[in-house]
Amino acid sequence: MTxxxxxxxxxxxxxxxxxxxxxxxxxNETDTATGGGSDTEAAELSGQxxxxxxxxQEAAQLAWTTGFTEVAPDVTMTYEPVGxxxxxxxxxxxxxxxAGSDAYLTDDEGELSDATERCSGEAPIEVPNYVSPIAIIFxxxxxxELNLTPDTLGAIFAxxxxxxxxxxxxxxxxxADLPSAxxxxxxxxDESGTTxxxxxxxxxxxxxxWTGGVVETWPNEFGGEGAQxxxxxxxxxxxxxxxxxxxxxxxAGDLGTANIQVGEEFVAPTPEAAANILAVSPLxxxxxxxxxxxxxxYLTEEADAYPIVLTSYMIACPTYEDxxxxxxxKAYLDYVLSPEGQEQGANEAGAxxxxxxxxxxxxxxxxxxxxxx
Length: 373
Hints:
With 373 residues, the protein is α/β, with parallel strands linked by helices.
């Protein structure tokens, strides 16, 4: 069964809506690429809205908030890259009408229940909007290419491997001129969905070397250099000496990016390889009908799949008490998930466009957003 077939088996109502939307779009050339809305409907919206969350989405969200003005010229949408945790907190408090997060909501700390309460007792909508590799970025004297196995990667960030010419790194990079120098391992200092995705991978794929578990806040006992946000990690690695870190690949710039072992191969962090991980991963067991959330298969041996990825989500309410908020939230998410929006994300932020079946399912869920009576 393909992943699209799996989604349709779990979400038959959504699949029906998706087909209806698809047929409507084919028969009505006045519909926009925003899913189900029209240019006229979006053009009638107005107001200023601040949303925010995952800093990894910053570049893509800048493209989306800018592009959204073309279909809703009287709406000013601003995205604050405050981190996934901050985005979820502000959504729960009602400060944001929608939020971006690099991790889906759970009740480990009561966030799912709090978000459900915020949404008048309905489970919040969670749909993927952004798939991008988490690159292992490096700036090491004399090293242009770097291969790392999961266990070696885990040992570096756990502070167990501290020198670049360590035997484990040398064995994986026989042609590299590794310096005899300390490793400066850079991590996020803030609560971060990127950190959660990265440590989730390490917890599964590098369990022999990584003992920190799955965390959004970096364990102090592992040391290293902390930096605020994705841009902070990139700056610290860029300006540091013999440094290594983890960040959304779209913001890696000119830094080196390591190849990670998958099966018998070392795989580069390309958008296409990152998107392929969803094709081999199941929906989370906790997923409701309006939630397309995934438990990634970090142990895949598919050589065309890069396993350390950000599957970022947009979080919204199925129903808003304020009609204007409902209309703007729906129109904005329609735009982000549209073919036009996904192409913008790819062009401006290096994200992989969502697979067409997944895109249709996500749009169908967003189309159910309504205003309360």
